[in-house]
Amino acid sequence: MIKNDLLLRAARGEQTERTPVWLMRQAGRILPEYRALRARLSGFKELVETPELAAEVTIQPVDALDVDAAIIFSDILVVPDAMGLTYEMVEARGPLFPETIRSAADVRKLRVTDPEEGLGYVLEAIRVTKRALNGRVPLIGFAGAPWTILAYMVEGHGSKTFSKARRMLYAEPALAHQLLEKITATTIAYLQAQVQAGANLIQVFDSWAGILPPNHYREFSTRYIAQICAALPNVPVTVFAKGAFFALEDFAQLDCQTIGLDWNQDPRTARTIIGDNHTLQGNLDPCALYGSPEQVQAATIEMLRHFGPQRHIANLGHGVYPDTDPASVRVFIDTVKEFSALAREGQI
Q: Is there a binding annotation on residue 108?
């Protein structure tokens, strides 16, 4: 039994006594205890691949920030790594793939890995975390959407345009689909294993959704996200596709429970398009947390008013930035809890 199940009830569309709240990238980055642990290690991958340490970092924001959910400390790029395309995490630069996907032969070499073999360290981190949480809050598992994973596997690193990856969609669409099918099969098996290990909710991150035109997004992303959602019937699923304002009508047809919004999307417009059968998540601008406590509080209240009192999970519109003051994050969290509870009671 989970003592604080607000997140799960909100995702399912049930009544809640207040709005649940958590933050993308809450595990790490802003917390001094995370930075102290990280400084003792050889690098990011050591932390991700050591279950006990990943579990410790996962739980830190539950203790320090009193959020309503934990999200397992990992990375979306563990999937291509397990498929045979290894990556490095370069300090101050981000991910780098020494080898990239260029041909059908490269795609054939990739494996659809058994999750316990290729990603067992993440699954063990989930099991360790679940034991340590002891039912305090739900645990969120996650993976990257297939298009976003393809973008890194073809481009080889982060990019403003991902022109190499996008070129494949135009020049070699059949090859792109072959790669996406392998990524999707691996991702489905991985997320199903996360649920078996104890994840209570799954989030699919499509970080580079917004760089595709709508017709390409429908063909090369939404169809594969739909397959993932349909393969996870036993837990709530959240789809967060940054920049994909044009895809809301399609998202309304997905077999998922929650749609995440970035900070450029208007919750009222999104609700009109999506309807009442999905919960919305988001969407405070992460930069709003650079303001004074009074400004953070005001921005949070405005956000809550726009979403309304039900079927909302409060979050930022993207991950929390690493130089954000944890005190400002606490103002955000406390304001969500206090204002939404009063609104439920009709006191404001």
A: no
Three-state DSSP class for residue 95: strand
Q: Are 248 and 273 in contact (CB under 8 A)?
A: yes
pTM of the model: 0.97
Residue 278 sits in a domain whose CATH number is 3.20.20.210
Residues that are catalytic = 25, 29, 38, 75, 152
Q: Specify the number of domains making up the chain.
A: 1
pLDDT, tens digit, for every residue of 159-212? Answer: 999 999 999 999 999 999 999 999 999 999 999 999 999 999 999 999 999 999
Question: Could you list the residue range(s) of the whole structural domain that residue 143 is in?
Answer: 6-344
Of 57, 58, 68, nearest to 6 by C-alpha is 68
Whole-number Cα distances in Å, 10 to 6, 61, 344? 6, 20, 14
127 annotated as a binding-site residue: no
Q: Is 75 annotated as a binding residue?
A: yes
318 labeled binding residue? yes
Residue 294 in domain: yes
CB 65 within 8 A of CB 25: no
